[in-house]
């Protein structure tokens, strides 16, 4: 069995995903066969693994960092929150079922076997496995049947490093409180801790480190500052959307309505890196900016519910006004379905609403169907005759006159739709903005220079920067034991 270490956080969004990615890249750069693993993830940002099936987008990024093919076994349980049906449960890449929160708690013990089986598959042939926890082990109300944190660590015998986020404040209390609240067997799994997202002079926290050690006996494995490279990596959780918008006026403003069940919003990350683009995430209670040149409707885990919320915000009227002013709209996956005349759900897959009017910007209709399309795809844009590479994860079949003008050819078949004037476009292909030639030609159509930039290369460079930062700031003796 490979060596393994598990990073757990004192709370959500403490930076575990980036730390795991950085450690994977650091180990890979030292010649180790390293693989990431996350027993349970809750996210509507999904990816199609190289062996088929869905995993969390974060584990896809971590596999990229590890320079190893992604696998459904790297994230054996993926929860995708949706509307009144609770969450869709993906087990080893395939739809397992749906459950509300309380029902899922009863299901977890049944899923532990799949989690441990996947861990063995990931560990086979590896030198090192770096495991990411979910939420916090201090959520002792969820400890019974846990598969995401200490329930996994104790069963698999994987030592734990706690990660505390000093930027949000209270890091000493969060670490000491975690020590105090854990049961003895769980506490014994913790080898030490890392302080993350520190700003300023690290020596100012020396007394804090001594205090934590005095209360817990745990060693500190390093104080990691804010790492600039981390900001260039795709974000996993929608809670970070508040921080993603770029400030300052630029030549092209692109507006993105943030709906409650937004999915795969990392589609937008390549646009965020463009110097002439101002990406504006429109939150609840805000208006879609009148000076936006382009509005992007991203994916949704529940198209019908998000359409209702879009109307409740008045964004349907904003979109109509945007189009009357000559603005353009791109809809991706669920956003594409919203652009049509009607969305039908005769089987109630998304809930109790069996059909709802769409925005009427494309002459198409969508019918939800139980079969799920999940695959990586090669494509070509019909608008710009540019190569595309991405993936599809969607329910539903879309038809209508505007489909006679497909926006892309995916795996040899027509996909999506274009309006007669070419200003409204929809597609089921995630990742189209990450295709450098397409993104350049899209920006050129707005009068920008559209200089071609290698987005994937920029992500790869950011991973190397994060790895270098961790090598500099983590305890070299601990690192030597881990990746030496």
Commentary on this structure:
There is one protein chain. This protein is an alpha/beta fold and about 475 residues long. Helices cover about 30% and strands about 30% of the residues. It contains 15 helices and 26 strands. A 6-stranded parallel β-sheet has the order 2-9-1-10-11-12, with helices on both faces. Strand 6 (about 75-80) and strand 7 form a beta hairpin. Helix 1 runs parallel beside helix 2 (about 55-65) and helix 5 (about 170-180) packs parallel to helix 7. Mean pLDDT is about 95; it is low at about 240-245. Belongs to the CobB/CobQ family. CobQ subfamily. Keywords: Cobalamin biosynthesis, Glutamine amidotransferase. This is Cobyric acid synthase. Pfam families: CbiA, GATase_3. It comes from Rhizobium indicum.
Total of DSSP H or I helical runs spanning 4+ residues: 15
Helix content: 25-40%
- What's the overall average pLDDT, rounded? 93
Poorly predicted residue ranges:
242-247
Biggest pleated-sheet summary:
6 strands, parallel
- Please indicate the percent range of residues in DSSP E strands (runs of 2 or more): 25-35%
**What class would the helix/strand composition place it in?**
alpha/beta
Taking all Cα atoms into account, the compactness measure Rg is: 23 Å
**Strand tally, please?**
26
Keywords:
single chain; 484 residues; alpha/beta; six-stranded parallel sheet; six-stranded mixed sheet
Q: What's this, in brief?
A:
Keywords: Cobalamin biosynthesis, Glutamine amidotransferase. This protein is α/β, with parallel strands linked by helices and 484 residues long. Helix 1 (16-29) crosses helix 14 (455-473).
């Amino acid at each position: 069995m490979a060596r393994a270490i598990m990073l757990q956080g004192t709370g959500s969004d403490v930076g575990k995903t980036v730390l795991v990615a950085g450690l994977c890249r650091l180990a890979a750069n030292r010649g180790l066969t390293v693989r990431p693993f996350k027993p349970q993830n809750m996210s509507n940002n999904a990816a199609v693994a190289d062996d088929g099936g869905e995993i969390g987008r974060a584990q896809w990024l971590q596999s990229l960092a590890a320079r190893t093919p992604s696998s459904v076994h790297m994230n054996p349980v993926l929860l995708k929150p949706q509307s009144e049906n609770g969450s869709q449960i993906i087990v080893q890449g395939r739809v397992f079922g749906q459950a509300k929160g309380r029902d899922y708690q009863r299901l977890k013990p049944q899923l532990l076997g799949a989690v441990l089986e996947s861990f063995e598959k990931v560990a086979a042939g590896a030198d090192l496995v770096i495991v990411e926890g979910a939420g916090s082990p201090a959520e002792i109300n969820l400890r019974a049947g846990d598969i995401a944190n200490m329930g996994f660590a104790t069963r698999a015998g994987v030592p734990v490093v706690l990660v505390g986020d000093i930027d949000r404040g209270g890091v000493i209390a969060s670490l000491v409180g975690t020590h105090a609240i854990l049961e003895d067997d769980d506490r014994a799994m913790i080898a030490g801790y890392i302080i993350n997202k520190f700003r300023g002079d690290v020596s100012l926290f020396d007394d804090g480190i001594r205090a934590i050690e005095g209360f817990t006996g745990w060693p500190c494995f390093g104080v990691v500052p804010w790492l600039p490279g981390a900001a260039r990596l795709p974000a996993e959780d929608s809670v970070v959307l508040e921080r993603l918008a770029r400030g300052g006026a630029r030549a092209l403003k692109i507006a993105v309505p943030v709906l409650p069940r937004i999915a795969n919003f990392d589609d937008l990350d390549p646009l965020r890196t463009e110097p002439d683009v101002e990406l504006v995430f429109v939150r609840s209670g805000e208006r879609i900016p009148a000076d936006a040149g382009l509005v992007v409707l991203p994916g949704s885990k529940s198209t019908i519910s998000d359409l209702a919320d879009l109307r409740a915000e008045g964004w349907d009227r904003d979109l109509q006004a945007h189009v009357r002013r000559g603005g353009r709209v791109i809809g991706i996956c669920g956003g594409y379905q919203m652009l049509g005349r009607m969305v039908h759900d005769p089987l109630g897959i998304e809930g109790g609403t069996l059909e709802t009017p769409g925005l009427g910007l494309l002459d198409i209709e969508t019918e939800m169907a139980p079969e799920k399309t999940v695959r990586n795809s090669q494509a070509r844009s019909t608008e710009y005759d540019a190569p595309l590479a991405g993936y599809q994860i969607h329910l539903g079949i879309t038809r209508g006159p505007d489909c006679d003008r497909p926006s892309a050819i995916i795996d040899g078949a027509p996909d999506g739709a274009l309006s007669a004037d070419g200003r409204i476009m929809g597609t089921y292909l995630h990742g189209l903005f990450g295709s450098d030639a397409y993104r350049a030609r899209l920006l050129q159509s707005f009068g920008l220079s559209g200089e071609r930039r290698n987005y994937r290369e920029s992500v790869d460079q950011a991973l190397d920067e994060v790895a270098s930062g961790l090598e500099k700031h983590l305890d070299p003796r601990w690192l030597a034991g881990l990746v030496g």
